[in-house]
Write a structure and sequence with these properties.
Blueprint: E1 3-7, H1 12-28, E2 31-38, H2 48-76, E3 82-88, H3 91-101, E4 106-110, H4 118-122, H5 124-132, E5 137-140, E6 151-155, H6 162-176, E7 179-185, H7 189-205, E8 212-217, H8 225-235, E9 239-244, H9 248-255, H10 263-266, E10 271-274
Parallel strand pairs: 1-2, 1-4, 2-3, 4-5, 6-7, 6-9, 7-8, 9-10
Antiparallel strand pairs: 5-10
Length: 280
């Protein structure tokens, strides 16, 4: 881990994501890129001069807000390796472009925002970043106060390159000084046996010295898989839950208003979303 990219809209939630990223950077000895994109106002009419003045005002506001953030970081974390960047343009496109330009190893962002970049943290734009970013994305929910991980938990559906995924997560767990678990929510005898076989073969291969704890999690007949995972995270605080990007419907349910009251707890827990290991 070398570079953590943090998009800001200067809302409290995005600042919470920044605090989260700072702790990760300190643990993994990484550099942080603090990023903001302001967008020129969309006006159907009006003079060119009027639009330019509004754009300049937006730029000045962004610079003033970033200055406060930078000064606070220097005050609280004087030894932190970081730089900041302000650009104009569509936030979604700029986040994707600059995170790749900086060869970011991780993007850390919030799930809710204020004006200007709201859609980045709430709607289809967030899904676009999750799906198109060239690196894993850590989503920090609005109520999250956790800034360290004791364990990284990969929930496998046994449909991906789990070996490659775990090999990648081993490095992440080492960087973050966390334990690594691979869990499978039981479905039927066939999938349970498949998981047990994979766990046994993986450990026998001894990919490296980082130990992986494999667990099968029981599920009641009427329970949904996401509810079982939410229960597990609740029972094991300081957990970073890992999901693959292909499980988009699950992610939408996880962060949607239709999820049961258990979501109230999970809203305090970060989620690492990564692409299939064969593309890492």
């Amino acid at each position: 881990m070398q570079t953590i990219f943090v998009p800001l809209d200067f809302s409290e939630n995005s600042l919470q994501a920044l605090r989260h990223a700072i702790q990760l950077a300190k643990t993994s000895v990484s550099k942080i890129i603090v990023f903001h994109s302001y967008q020129a106002p969309q006006m159907g009419g009006g003079s060119f001069t009027g639009k330019r003045k509004l754009t300049e005002l937006g730029k000045q506001e962004a610079e003033d807000n970033m200055y406060k953030v930078v000064m606070k970081i220097k005050e609280v974390e004087p030894n932190l390796d970081f730089e900041h960047l302000i650009v104009d343009g569509d936030p979604m496109q700029r986040i994707l472009f600059y995170s790749e330009s900086y060869a970011a190893d991780l993007i850390v962002m919030g799930t809710k925002g204020a004006s200007g970049m709201t859609e980045v943290f709430l709607g289809s734009v967030a899904a676009k970043i999750i799906n198109d970013a060239t690196c894993p994305v850590v989503i920090v929910p609005q109520e999250s106060e956790k800034e360290t991980y004791e364990r990284i938990v990969y929930a496998t559906a046994l449909i991906a390159d789990d070996k490659g995924t775990l090999n990648y997560l081993k490095g992440l767990a080492t960087d973050f000084k966390a334990k690594l678990e691979c869990i499978h929510v039981e479905e039927n005898a066939e999938t349970n046996t498949k998981f047990e076989t994979f766990a046994r073969n993986y450990n026998e291969e001894g990919t490296n010295n980082q130990y992986v704890d494999f667990k099968t999690i029981s599920k009641k007949e009427e329970q949904k898989t996401e509810d079982v995972l939410l229960d597990y995270v609740q029972e094991n605080p300081l957990t970073l839950l890992v999901m693959l990007r292909r499980e988009r419907d699950f992610l939408q349910r996880l962060f949607g208003h239709s999820v049961t009251n258990k979501m109230a707890y999970h809203s305090e827990s970060p989620l690492l979303i990564m692409k299939a290991a064969d593309k890492i």
